[in-house]
Amino acid sequence: MRSAKGQRALRPVLCGVRTVWDTVGDGAFFCPGCGGDRNYRRLTGRRRLTVLGVPLVGRGEAEPVVECAACLAHHAPEALEHPTTTRFSAMLREAVHTVTLAVLAAGGTTSRTVLEAAVATVRDAGLDDCTQEQLFTVVEVLAADTGRGSGTDAAAEACGPTLAIELHEVLAPLAPHLATAGRASVLLQGARIALADGPYCAAERQVLTTVGSALGIPAEETARVLAEAARTPS
Fold first, then answer.
1. Per-residue exposure over 103-122, b if at least 16 CB sit within 10 Å of its own CB, e if not
2. What is residue 68's DSSP assignment?
3. Residue 102 CB: number of other CB atoms within 10 A?
4. What is the widest separation between alpha-carbon atoms in the chain?
5. Which of 18, 45, 76, 188 has CB atoms 3.0–4.6 Å from 62's, for a disulfide?
6. Residue 199 Rama label (left phi>0; alpha psi -120 to 50; beta)
7. Tens digits of per-residue pLDDT, 52-63?
8. 3 state SS for 188-211
9. Tell me, what DSSP letter sits at residue 55?
10. Comparing 53-57, 82-86, 184-188, which segment has the lowest mean pLDDT?
11. Buried b or exposed e, range 46-57, using 16+ CB within 10 angstroms
């Protein structure tokens, strides 16, 4: 003989509320649940009153969600704001490359030691085919495009409004996804390039200060990182 509890468990659910989901988009994202890059579906939902499992009467809209194709967990749409691992790596490479070019534009490209440090930095960031000649050419092209020419005058004007805007466009989207140590590391890489041929010149310090600002590093912390880098043998 079944117990009363067992009988209650076998009773069908006569009515309830069910969410009917519609797929409105898909793609790849970084799943907070899986901890890695996964495919997703973007879903919008409508709540329905059900009788014997059949949806009948609407009960309003459900909040849109992002469903992971692997773990099937639902996440808020804000999860799509976090870059995938692949995209994050590309953003970091672009950031290091842009900072490197900015430092070279400020300090000049006549020092072989500086160019060697710049190439090593860019290659460590993942651009394995970077060469001194490529960096030299890009800096010269940038100087020509802005009408600054090359040499000391170009270095003195290196951190004008155009370069400051470019640094902010590349670094600002990356900064929220970097820990404090990660933001300082990007700044430190630029500092080490600038210091490869001696103390910072005024233009290099100006560029590096702009880098710190674009990364959201407080001005006093930027100054501390630059000072510590200058005291540390490379």
1. bbbbbbbeeeebbebbbebb
2. E
3. 30
4. 97
5. 45
6. beta
7. 666 665 667 888
8. HHHHHHHHHHCCCCHHHHHHHHHH
9. E
10. 53-57
11. ebbebeeeebee
